[in-house]
Design brief:
With 341 residues, the protein is an alpha/beta fold. 34% of the residues lie in helices and 20% in strands.
């Protein structure tokens, strides 16, 4: 089986060309073809000698794969389906007037088993490689229109940190796509050791799934919270001076009667004091086998204003692609996997 070149860092490409006894500068030429000239075949790398291309083709390929399906929402959102090592993953393309965002997956399924998320209910099938993460970006028809990227699809990015960091290196390096880190947001439920390494090695934005300021409530919603407390997460964020390095946001799905009370507003203001951040309020989208309910629109607006009054910049995220199960918490390939097993 041939090894994919797409998704490799410059250092990894240097190792490949060195092993083939090719000049080291060949690695930067290959990177240019992969990430800037968007070739799909090694033979298209025309500034490499014919011998060099033949040596590469013996054990390597570009390694791009097209989506196997696409669904289009009434609001213009598109959900792309990809196959990865016999499993299926989804990426959501969200076009707006001035922004074109792609929500990418980092795992097939997820281990975290959050109460409100369909991905967690399908279980965990495997980590994606940097190639499989970046392939979601490169292989959609709208790839040249993208302005922003969010690692908020299937899986927990910090549970597959090395592949995520590798993909970020390709995206933000001058030999890669040359994106500004400010165009990229990586989410996490708060795996503290991985989050620490991410903040030390990447300047991309960070989004933390919070959903309640109270430990007991958060643990009920997100079982992994029993291992990584809210205090531990916030202490780690404070160590890295987030106001200067990156934008910190807290994702907060609003559940009726559970986490939308004045008591929650007061506690959020207390625990986030001193952290320059924003809260993104998210409507809950009903999924099977849960008693959780979405809060009504009036209370959602009131909750937002109460938080803003406390000095916390708070916005309500627009729900996109709900009719094709592309909205927050709805990505799942469980039924498709059953049909193909």
């Amino acid at each position: 089986m041939k090894q994919a070149l797409f998704g490799k860092t410059l250092d990894q490409l240097k190792t490949i060309v060195t092993d083939l006894h090719l000049p080291v500068y060949t690695s930067r030429q290959i990177a240019g073809w992969l990430y800037q000239k968007h070739v799909t075949d090694i033979d298209e790398m025309t500034n490499l000698s014919k011998k060099a291309r033949q040596l590469l083709e013996e054990k390597h390929e570009v390694g791009l794969t097209s989506p196997v399906n696409v669904q289009t929402s009434a609001d213009g959102t598109k959900k792309y389906l990809f196959e990865a090592d016999g499993h299926y993953i989804e990426a959501a393309y969200i076009p707006e007037r001035k922004r074109h965002t792609l929500c990418v997956s980092s795992q097939a399924g997820c281990k975290m088993n959050c109460l409100f998320c369909m991905t967690g209910k399908q279980g965990f099938q495997g980590n994606l490689t940097a190639n499989q993460i970046l392939n979601q970006v490169r292989s959609i028809p709208e790839h040249d229109q993208l302005t922003n990227l969010v690692y908020m699809g299937m899986g927990e990015p910090m549970d597959n940190l090395e592949a995520v960091l590798q993909s970020l290196e390709v995206l933000t390096s001058d030999w890669g796509y040359g994106w500004s880190p400010k165009r990229i947001t990586v989410s996490t439920i708060g795996i503290v050791p991985a989050m620490k390494k991410f903040m030390e090695t990447s300047r991309c934005h960070l989004a933390v799934s919070l959903h309640s300021p109270f430990e007991e409530e958060r643990e009920a919603l997100m079982p992994v919270s029993k291992k990584y407390s809210i205090k531990d997460i916030l202490d780690e964020i404070r160590k890295h001076d987030p106001g200067r390095q990156r934008r910190i946001s807290f994702e907060y799905i609003v559940f009726k009667g559970l986490n939308d009370t004045p008591r929650h507003v007061k506690e959020l203001a207390r625990i986030l004091n001193g952290i320059r951040c924003r809260i993104n309020l998210i409507r809950f989208h009903q999924i099977p086998d849960t008693d959780l309910q979405t809060t009504d629109e009036q209370r959602l607006l009131e909750f937002k204003e109460e938080l803003n009054t406390k000095g916390i910049t708070t916005t309500i995220r627009a729900s996109r692609g709900q009719d094709i199960d592309a909205a927050c918490g709805l990505l799942s390939t469980k039924e498709l996997s059953k049909k193909n097993s």
